[in-house]
Amino acid sequence: MLITTALLASFALPSAPIEEPTLTWHQGTIETAIGEADERETLAAVYFWRNGSEYCTDFYQNTLGDGRVVEAIDDFVLFSAQHGTDAGNALFEKYNVKSLPTVLFIDGSGKLEDAVAGFAYADGFVAELDRIGRGELTMSDLERKIAASEKGSDEKLELRYKHAVKIGDLGDKDGGEAAFAAISDSDKRGKTVIGCKVKLQLAMTEISEAAGGEEKIAEWDIRPIYTLVKKVKNAEGKFEIWDQIANIEALREDMGLACKAWMNASELVPEERAMKWSRGIANYIMHVEGDRTSQEKKFVLSLATRASQLASLVEAEECKCEDDYKCEHEDSAMMQADFLATLARAYKLNGDAKMASLTAKQSVELNGSDENHEHLSELL
């Protein structure tokens, strides 16, 4: 149950929600929903929620209420499981759902294939729906890849880690912990990235359980994670832990501590992840309400500048990326426009109106859509 920046910030500013979600909900039972999923050769998407939960309300209004999500989730059979109702409580118990909100994805045979556990912004949730719809890194896909990977290889270790995370996300706490313990036995000192991530995962689980779950994150005692990051030697492992600390502090609404942790993470971020990660963090910090210190403002500008520079290298095919980010855009110019828009807002945050305007104009020149022009109109 790691809190990821992809779900926290989605590497972009959240879009405005539509006034009322126009979702199509299955009106039968969980069994008929799974049956319909079987007939349609898709998955049932079971939404677990509770009245009075701030996260659930936000997720329903601003994530499920986003037009892109409405369109994407229509490929699945959408079913509601409300806590506090007899039918809903039975499903919470059956699938051992602890985090709210949670969306479980179940195939036509009743097998749990995937989950989005915890709050997600629209951009991140759409990306998850797309991945799951393609059958990428689902439970079945991971099982196939693990079986096909070479014994003792780094690839197999990475796949085993993702599989262990998936087991826990799908409600099998004991199975997930056993899988993590098996991985930990092969790297007890956390010398590898996976070893560090496992230690982080185990610490997160213990902290969450002691405090009463993810919804009580404000009460989490995360001192053990701060201690852990000081002990590990692996640079990428330290990055993972600092990034996780920052995500937790951000959710606890302590942006000062979050920014300090992200500053530490920025010095260690792997080259292939730096472009998307830097832009995502810059966007998130600028989006969150509240005043930023001069140091934090400069940090945002450094992140946005770095991301924009790396994006230009992608265009020149001189930058190695975590994935082919260029493929996510029909036109590479649109990608550069996105990164320049972030940089323009970062200049504005730092009080440099001239550079904000010049950079915004560069973005609009590359992406002349009405939407981009409207987003940057105050800077032009």
Outline the structure in words.
By secondary structure, the protein is an alpha+beta fold. Among the domains are: 5-134, Glutaredoxin, CATH 3.40.30.10; 271-380, no CATH class. It has 18 helices and 4 strands. It has helices at 5-8, 30-40, 54-63, 67-73, 86-95, 122-134, 139-148, 154-169, 173-185, 193-211, 223-231, 235-251, 255-266, 271-287, 294-315, 332-349, 353-366, 370-376, and strands spanning 44-50, 77-83, 102-106, 112-117. A hairpin with a 5-residue loop joins β3 (102-106) and β4 (112-117). Residues 5-19 and 322-330 have low confidence and may be disordered.
Write the layout of secondary structure elements.
Elements: H1 5-8, H2 30-40, E1 44-50, H3 54-63, H4 67-73, E2 77-83, H5 86-95, E3 102-106, E4 112-117, H6 122-134, H7 139-148, H8 154-169, H9 173-185, H10 193-211, H11 223-231, H12 235-251, H13 255-266, H14 271-287, H15 294-315, H16 332-349, H17 353-366, H18 370-376
Parallel strand pairs: 1-2
Antiparallel strand pairs: 1-3, 3-4
Helix pairs in contact: 4-6, 7-8, 8-9, 8-10, 9-10, 10-12, 11-12, 12-13, 13-14, 14-15, 14-16, 15-16, 16-17
